[in-house]
Amino acid sequence: MDFDPDIISKIILNLAGNAVKFCASGDNIDFSIFEKDHLLTISIADTGSGIKPQEIDRIFDRFFSSIESDSTSNNSTGIGLALTKELVHFLSGDITVESTWQQGSTFKVVLPITRTAPTLRLPLHREASVNPQPTLTPAESIQILIVEDNTDLIFYIRSCLGLDFKILEARNGHEGEQMALENIPDLIISDIMIPFKNGIDLCKSLKEDERTSHIPIILLTAKATIEDRIVGLESGADAYLAKPFSERELHVRIRKLLELRRKLQEKYASNRDKALQPNEASVQPDPFMERVKKVIDKEIGNEGLNPNMLAARLFLSRTQLHRKIKAITGQSTTYLINLYRIEMAKKLLANTDETVDQVAYEVGFVNPGYFRRIFQKYTGMNASSFRENSV
After folding, report:
1. How far apart are CA 180 and CA 6, in angstroms?
2. pLDDT tens-digit series, residues 217-236
């Protein structure tokens, strides 16, 4: 039959994990799968603690927590019954539960059997096959902040992202905002329905703050209407993901946003003649980089101009400054300061009669020998040859 192995495995693993969680030593868990009337039924039955009659109708509610499950909720290893139900509905199926208090529960998933997908003929040798799952292999550790109050959903997102990223977690909007400002992550995934400050307001705050305005933000919501999507995008969100979502969809969203960020970095990197400025007229100057440029302009001749001074002038920590500049330009703060000095030195060498040593001092290098080495490294030629070729 046609099926999505990723979603099916998550449904089964979550239901099995849920059964284990509410069983004690000596209890049994029975798994069965069968076809009847063109329907596939997956059944997981246990002899555990069961569900109270007054709680059965709410067992799939997202925020529902049984009194009996409070002590074990922190040990959750699934994606939650609410998300399981959403995944089942995503496959056009249905999920039901029958339970007797203190005797056990039976969860049944019923899926329509279809055979309309094209047949996939795998090659004989495994090494010749193509992995259909796009993977992300960052050149360096990419930091993703998840702002979500549902432990099961955090677990699900973590399981989707695997070991590709460094994951930070915040359980409400206020905490998420503080962590975003302190760590300047490469990307933020936030649910809209979170305590203290919802995802829409969090997104607006971060996009209006120049320290975090560059960070791509993916908003998660159970709502999928056009109006809801518009509200999310108007808040400044870069992507909008309706639950339930598959691992592949999440990966593609993240990969596309990071690719856009890398393209902007390439535009800065390829325009060395105009340091700190993108090389296409269609790209609006970044307000933050404009401030960086003004500070460097003012302190260009100050030998003490370094990442620490620049960070202090911008009211940031050195780490905040580094991650912000790295995200926008792909370069370190030290590299940009030196690049700007070298670009200024090139103008002075081409348009004045000042000696190489005088130019070095004017752009903040107290050691002319070091200036010559940096000039050679950044331009590929020594300062004297550059002057001769500029005449």
Report:
1. 31
2. 999 887 666 776 677 677 78
Mean pLDDT, range 362-369, rounded to an integer: 90
Rounded CA separation 195/214 (Å): 24
Q: What is the pLDDT of residue 78?
A: 45
Distance CA 304, CA 281 (A): 33
CA 149 to chain centre: 17
Last residue of a domain, one of 223, 245, 266: 266
369, 370, 373, 378: CA torsion to nearest 10: -140
| Cis status of the peptide bond prior to 112, with omega within 30 of 0 | no
Same domain, 234 and 172: yes
Over residues 119-136, the pLDDT tens digits come to: 766 554 433 333 344 444
Domain assignment present for residue 137? The answer is no
- The dihedral over CA atoms of 218, 224, 226, 229, expressed in degrees to the nearest 10, equals -20
Taking residue 260's Cβ as centre, other Cβ atoms within 10 Å add up to 12
Q: Does residue 118 lie within any of the structural domains? A: no
How far is 123 from 198, CA to CA, in rounded Å?
A: 48
> Number of folded domains in the chain?
3
The values of phi and psi at residue 32, to 5°, are -145, 155
In a domain, 75, yes or no: yes
Domain span at residue 335?
272-390
Question: Which residues are CB-neighbours of 206 under 8 A, at least 6 positions away?
Answer: 177, 180, 188, 212, 213, 215, 217, 236
What is the rounded CA–CA span in Å between residue 41 and residue 106?
12
Instruction: Tell me the pLDDT band of 41, cut-offs 50, 70 and 90.
Output: very high
Q: What is the pLDDT of residue 72?
A: 40
Residue 37 has which token pair? Answer: 């009337």
CA 226 to chain centre: 24
Beta-bridged to residue 168, according to DSSP, are 145
Instruction: Give the list of residues 6+ apart from residue 175 with CB closer than 8 angstroms, or none.
Output: 147, 196
Exposure string over 360-390, b if 16+ CB within 10 A, otherwise e: bbbbbbeebeebbebbeebbeeebeebbeee
Contacts of 263 (CB under 8 A, 6+ apart): none
